[in-house]
Amino acid sequence: MTVNSLLELTIAPEFVDVAVDRINGVLEVTRAFEGCLGVDVIVDVDDPAHIVLLEKWTTIERDDAYRAFRATPEGKSDLGTILAGPPTLTRYTVVE
Questions:
Q1: In 3-state terms, what secondary structure has residue 67?
Q2: CA-CA distance, 89 to 17, in Å (whole number)?
Q3: What is the pLDDT of residues 19-45, one digit of tens each?
Q4: CA angle 92, 95, 96 (to 5 degrees)
Q5: Is 2 exposed, middle or buried (0-12, 13-18, 19+ CB in 10 A)?
Q6: In angstroms, what CA-CA distances link 86 with 43, 62, 95?
Q7: How many CB atoms lie within 10 A of CB 66?
Q8: Is-contact 24 4, C-beta < 8 A?
Q9: Given 3.40.50.300, 1.10.10.60, 3.40.1370.10, 3.30.70.100, which CATH number is that of 3-92?
Q10: All structural domains of the chain with their residue ranges
Q11: Binning pLDDT at 50, 70 and 90, where does residue 55 land?
Q12: Spatial distance between the Cα atoms of 51 and 16, rounded to a whole number of angstroms
């Protein structure tokens, strides 16, 4: 069953202008990760410091594997350096 993950980011004010480029650089690895069906970056029209990553994964296990990878030294990104606080992850499944 596919999983849709929403990762909400709040960007530090001094990085708002470069955030999307930085995020897209990090997402090259995400998009190539086994089980990733795609990632969209959406920016709040009223608050450009509020960015959400809409990720689609083949299974919860592949999403879990990706999160575990990002927690390793090899998978660590510099995304945290542009954030104003910790990201919030919410995961959903589609109900038919």
A1: helix
A2: 23
A3: 999 999 999 999 999 999 999 999 999
A4: 155
A5: middle
A6: 17, 22, 29
A7: 20
A8: no
A9: 3.30.70.100
A10: 3-92
A11: very high
A12: 10
Name the one residue in this structure whose structure tokens are 């499944």.
Answer: 93
Specify the pLDDT at position 94.
84
**Phi/psi at 94 (nearest 5 deg)?**
-85, 130
Lookup result for tokens 């990002």: 70
Instruction: Write the pLDDT tens digit of every residue in 58-93.
Output: 999 999 999 999 999 999 999 999 999 999 999 999
The tokens describing 92, both together, are 């959903």
